[in-house]
Every structure is written in C-alpha cells, then in structure tokens.
Amino acid sequence: MQYLALLIRQDRNLTPDDQAAEMAAYESFHATAGPAIRSGDALLPAAVHVSGGADSPTITDGPFAEGAEVAGGYYVFEAENLDDALELARGIPAARHGAVEVRPIFHTVDEHWSRSDAQWLALLLEPPEGVNTPGSPEWQAEAGRHGEFAATAGDQIVGGAALHDPATATTVRVRNGEVLLTDGPFAESAEIATGFYLLTAADREQAVKLASMIPASVVEVRQLAKVSGI
Predict the structure, then answer these.
(1) Residue 99, domain member (yes or no)
(2) Does residue 229 lie within any of the structural domains?
(3) How many domains does the chain have?
(4) What are the φ and ψ backbone dihedral angles of 61, each rounded to 5 degrees?
(5) Bond from prior residue into 137 cis (ω within 30 degrees of 0)
(6) What HEC string does 93-124 produce?
(7) What CATH code is carried by the domain that includes residue 29?
(8) pTM of the model as a whole
C-alpha cells in the first residue's frame, strides 16, 4: 500500500553548518528507507492558491498558515501497513522539529512513479463538508471530472493520488527521541487535503493555469525544490 507523508516544518534560522547537518540527515534517511520511497522532494516556500475554476480563476499568493509551520516537502512511501509507514515517517528529520502527516493513498494516477520530471505539486483542498468518501457515488462523479482534466492536461500530469478520508491521517512527531502519534491531520483548518497532482509546467503561469482546471474548491500550487535526488 502507498502512503503520502506531508512534511510540516518549523521556520528556523539555520546556520550553514546546521543546513549541512540537515542535508546529511536527509541523505542518511534516504539510504535507510531505500526502495520504500517512491517519490518525494522539498517544496519551495512560495505558494499560490487557485480557486474559482478555469473560466474565472481567483489567484491568491501565500503564505496561508497563521503560524510558523508550513508544508516543507512530501514523500510517497510503499509500505505493507500503516505501522510500517509510521516507522518510516519517524525517521524523517522533519519529525524532530516539526511534524509529518501520514495519509493512506486510495488511488494513484501512476502507481510506478517512474517519471522524474515533476516540477510542481498541486495539493487539492476542500472544506470539511465538501469532502466525499472515496468510492462513494459522489466521489465517483468527482473522479469523472478528474478524468476530463487528465484528458486535457495529458503528459503534463506526471503523477498524483486521491487520499483516503481525513480521519485516517496520523501525525508523527519525535521529541527527545520519543515518538508521539496523534490521530488526525496535523492541524485543523478551513480546508482538508483530498489528493494531489505532480505536474510539469514551463513556469508559474502555466502551472497556475493547469491548477485552475483541476476540479477542487482550492488548489495550492508549490514548486518542487528538486533537491531530493530521488
């Protein structure tokens, strides 16, 4: 089974030595986690929210978090079960200073995650009352609209997935060597992630145009840092 691990980082002032140590910690994690990592990268800080649809999109520049903790990256894990996915998540350096939100994936666009040309992450957000249960008739109707988007976007869709219900989320923190697990998403907000796409686009304008065609109440667009080496 596959899981999305969304890295929630704290805004910290790191010295060059701290940055080098952080990079070494991630390299060590990659060496340990190995083939369980199917995809992943850091996210650049700049973000944009797109809503309103392709005909009249509303574009809002971030940041959107009220605090100093924002999504700083993601991984897609292949794991036998949730316990194994949480064991992987506890090894991510972000868990020591921020948190890692782990969500089981319901359906993937490309289960092999074979392409490495993704440049943008589009995170699909819905208000709690607008979240449909995966597999329900409402969800199937929504999936049909995603099929229309896929036909339009074509090869610009590199990968992506629909996520299980928010209630299946587990947040992982590591403090002083102790693993702290909390049921549910990292933080309550007006919108809940229901899925994501990995996109290739020439620039921000093209990425936002693609995002405006995705059938979701809000799409958060983030550029990949391309530093993971995965």
Answers:
(1) yes
(2) no
(3) 1
(4) -80, 145
(5) no
(6) CHHHHCEEEEEEEEEECCCCCCCCCCCEEEEE
(7) 3.30.70.1060
(8) 0.90
